[in-house]
Amino acid sequence: VCAHTIPNAHGGLEVCTVQFSRNKKYLLTGGKDATVRLWDVGSGRELRRIFTGNTKHPKWENRLQVCFSFNEDFIFSSDESNNACVVWDTRTGELVQRLTGHNGIVRWISSSPTDAHAITCSDDHRARFWVEEVQVAE
């Protein structure tokens, strides 16, 4: 039984990724409109929108990958404009850090369920394991 539908969740463009928060109250989505969105599951109301693109890439050609960090303080998203994984502050939507080093589009991101670690997989045929502490960008 479908409990709720979010019509036009990403402006009529493809919703590429979805993840529930641990408490199941929130839903994180990423779409081809180059946005990450945080939703209230009960009401379907959008709580936060993070624009991940730039003026050259107002819409992504590829699937936008998103996931929560282990403590849900941060959101990881792919960035096809520079083959990076971007870390956002969940509460403010501010850019925190760019994880760079891939030579191809980041296709998948997974966050450790217990630690501040993440893995990114890319078209460069590499998986990168990130163990750095997240630091605020200046």
Can you describe this structure in just a few lines?
The chain is mainly beta and 138 residues long. It has no helices and eleven strands. The protein has a four-stranded antiparallel β-sheet, with no helix packed on it. A four-stranded antiparallel β-sheet has the order 5-6-7-8, with no helix packed on it. Strands 9-10-11 form a three-stranded antiparallel β-sheet, with no helix packed on it.
Walkthrough of the structure:
This protein has 138 residues and is an all-beta fold. It has strands at residues 15-20, 26-31, 35-40, 46-51, 66-68, 74-79, 84-89, 95-99, 106-111, 118-122, 127-130. Strand 2 and strand 3 form a beta hairpin.
Spell out the blueprint of helices and strands.
Elements: E1 15-20, E2 26-31, E3 35-40, E4 46-51, E5 66-68, E6 74-79, E7 84-89, E8 95-99, E9 106-111, E10 118-122, E11 127-130
Antiparallel strand pairs: 1-2, 2-3, 3-4, 5-6, 6-7, 7-8, 9-10, 10-11
Helix count from the secondary structure assignment:
0
Q: Which sequence of SSEs, written as H and E, runs from N to C?
A: EEEEEEEEEEE
* Percentage of residues in helical conformation: under 10%
Q: Terminal Cα separation, in Å?
A: 47 Å
Strand content: 35-45%
Rounded to the nearest angstrom, the radius of gyration is 14 Å
Neighbour order of strands in the largest sheet: 1-2-3-4
The SS-based structural class is: mainly beta
Mean pLDDT value: 88
List low-pLDDT spans: none
Number of strands: 11
| Morphology call | globular
Major β-sheet profile: 4 strands, antiparallel
